Amino acid sequence: MALIKRISALLVAAVIFSAPVVTTVVSLQSAPAAAQTPAPDAAKPAEAAPSPAAAMTAPVAAPAAASEGLGMKAIWDKADMVAKFVLFILIVMSMGSWYILIVKFFEQRRLMKESKAATETFWNAGSLSQGMSTLHEDSAFRFIAEGGLKATERHSGLMGDVDFNTWVTMSIQRATDNVNSRLGDGLAFLATVGSTSPFVGLFGTVWGIYHALVAIGQSGQSSLDKVAGPIGESLIMTAIGLAVAVPAVLSYNWLIRRNKTAMEQVRAFSSDLHSVLMSQGNKAK
Question: Nearest CA to 65 among 225, 233, 227?
Answer without folding.
Answer: 225
